[in-house]
Amino acid sequence: MSTIQFPKDFLWGAATSAYQVEGNNYNSDWWEWEKSAGVKDLSGLACNHYERYEEDFDLIRSLGHNCHRLSVEWSRVEPEDGVFSQKEIEHYIKVVTALKERGIEPIVTLHHFTNPLWFSKLGGWENQDASRCFLSYAERIVSALSGSVRYWVIINEPEVYLYYSYIIGIWPPQEKSPRKAKTVFDNLAKAHIAAYRLIHDIYKKSGLASPFVGTAQHIRSFTLRVNNLRNRAAAAIRDRIFNRMFLNTLIRAHALDYIGLNYYTRDIVDAQSWNINSLLYDIYEENARNIKKNDLGWDIYPEGLFTSLMSLKKYRLPVFILENGICTQNDDERWRFILSHLKKVHAAMDSGVKVIGYIYWSLMDNFEWADGFAPCFGLIEVDYRTMKRTIRESAKKYSIVCKTGILDG
Ligand code: BGC
After folding, report:
1. If you average pLDDT over residues 381-398, what whole number do you get?
2. Domain with 335 in it: what CATH number?
3. Ligand 1 pocket test: which of 73, 361, 365, 373 has the largest number of ligand atoms within 8 Å of its C-beta?
4. Residue 368 near ligand 1, beta carbon < 6 Å
5. What is the DSSP string of 205-272?
6. Domain count of the chain?
7. Mean pLDDT, rounded, of the chain
8. Neighbouring-strand partners of residue 323
9. Gap between the Cα atoms of 409 and 275, Å rounded
10. 157 touches ligand 1 (CB under 6 Å)
């Protein structure tokens, strides 16, 4: 048993995204796709967080979180091209105000996978005008929320979005085209860089303290089944494309105040040949392996959080862990996951990485995209029939860490 102390000003919290929890997001490309694609569950009312946010924020306060990550649903705020809904903008003002009133720092994401339907009909992120469309939305939201928000995340996990939506095509718009993926990559990067500058300009013009603007970079750990030249080359290529390409583009453009890190799992690289598809995708998937997995079959590998954090040290920017979590029906397992990962966070801090906060994914069970409502990532359990919230034991244990900054275990 050891005791670990985190810094006094460390940010502790949990995350959600609008589409996964709010409910009734019917103007989005995801809703259109869900209806036609035969998905496991329709998102529908989700957790009805849109109406219950105050009750949910009371729970967050009782758990001692000092920050909360949420996203704004673009399709609500701008239901038609160039037409903004003042009512929905005011909703988000009320949301961030409700957090501030409870002493909780809002961390706001502008784009978390979903797009307005009108935007996707114009070609979505393939359209050369995509960045301009996004900026006009970003300007409205940032201007409206700037008085209460200091931490911004512009785009959540660009590589994950690209991979699922444009490479393997299992998310809308279901493309399998590296060429289109490249166009979308460029447009997302362009949008991020322009939005970064825009956000800083808005704060400057309003005489507000400088904001912290970042990204949520998903980093996957790539370990080798056998340490040979081919696997090492494959791991290096995957790391470069999946973990670094977007990040390096933003670093080169000086468009980050901090690096947001989302970390969940690793892949065991097992390239069967020098063929490009083998180098990019072959993994070792032996179910008999003596490795703990979450309910979606992802390896639980805390060491990967340590190595991911260490790999970010060279950028000399603060690192904010914006997502780390487990879906499981076994809540003891959830606590063990949090504990083991927090130990790695602290070890990386001891080794010189400036980590400013840790956000667990997710505050509550929610709509896990194409996997529907079955995976339970939440610190809080949601009964989707009654919408009743129940705080899990793991949340209570995490709450002690949030309140004291001390980890015993
Ligand atoms: C995403 C979340 C998602 C979580 C678990 C992250 O990649 O940002 O929206 O629910 O992983 O799959």
Report:
1. 98
2. 3.20.20.80
3. 361
4. yes
5. HTTPPPPEEEEEEEEEEEEESS-SHHHHHHHHHHIIIIIIHHHHHHHHTT--SEEEEEEEEEEEE---
6. 1
7. 97
8. 262
9. 45
10. yes
Domain that holds residue 347: 3-408
Mutate to test the pocket of ligand 1, among 295, 365, 369, 379 (most ligand atoms within 8 A of CB): 369
Centroid of ligand 1 to alpha carbon of 223 (angstroms) = 21
The atom number, within ligand 1, closest to the CA of 296 reads: 12
Put simply, whether the predicted model's pTM sits higher than 0.85 gets the answer yes
CB atoms within 10 A of CB 368: 20
Tokens of 258: 């901090």
pLDDT above 80 for 287: no
pLDDT tens for residues 242-285?
Answer: 999 999 999 999 999 999 999 999 999 999 999 999 999 999 98
323 lines ligand 1 (CB under 6 A): yes
300 CB within 6 A, ligand 1:
no
Cα 231 to ligand 1 centroid, rounded to whole Å: 27
